[in-house]
Amino acid sequence: MQGHILTATCVTEGLAIVHTPKAYSALVGSLEVSLSDEGMSRPKLDDDHWDEYYLRDMCEKFCLLFLNELVNKYGPDSVIKARFVERWLAKQNWGDDEKERQKNFAAYINNPHKLNRIGDIVKSIRETSAGMRQLRKARLISKEAATSSSGNIADGSSYGVYLEITMGTEDAGTSGPLLEQQGPRNRDRTAAEQRRRRQHREAVVISDGTRPIGRQDIIEREHSSPT
């Protein structure tokens, strides 16, 4: 993805270091930049039998994975304040007119065969009045649906996640490592193992590639030495 760099190392226990307005804005901003990437097709999301999520750009999937983990842990308020609906969700190809957009959006989110992170995030967003207002303002739901729909509660299962993703421009000539794993937390870790894992999540660097990475892009976690 041209002009786009995202680097992160994190586990679920360390999500607090990116639970900040700056981090949410950066993640949503990265999604927003991806919309203008040349050569990236945006299929109309009107096929009930095909889930396009897994063919999306890796950077999009990384940002959505991270936002979904944050929403699962802290709720949707921060992602709503970062204007996820306005800046990215509403700009997907839902259809050619308002009626078609609302029909395709409802079918996509409520389709039991499309269990992806977009649906998970939206289901949490529409559980709040602020989220429903944003969805209505974006014309993704009708006024009637906004006043009558209660949405669906997202699955609150607890997962551990480890991410190490590096993405550069095509000119860089290299692609970084990608590791994406999800599964139940290991409750049997020793204290020494937990300390070793903490060494890998002391900082997260997030940049949308529109300017050089600076100190303001580095989010560090403060923690005391183990006793």
Topology:
Layout: E1 6-10, H1 21-34, H2 58-74, H3 77-81, H4 84-87, H5 98-110, H6 117-125, H7 129-137, H8 143-148, E2 160-166, E3 178-183, H9 191-198, E4 203-206, E5 218-220
Antiparallel strand pairs: 1-2, 1-4, 2-3, 4-5
Helix pairs in contact: 1-2, 2-6
Could you characterize the architecture of this molecule?
- With 227 residues, the chain is α+β, with helices and mostly antiparallel strands.
- 37% of the residues lie in helices and 11% in strands.
- It contains 9 helices and 5 strands, in the order βααααααααββαββ.
- The longest helix is centred in the first third of the chain and has 17 residues, at 58-74.
Q: What labels would you give this structure?
A:
single chain; 227 residues; alpha+beta; 5-stranded antiparallel β-sheet; disordered N terminus
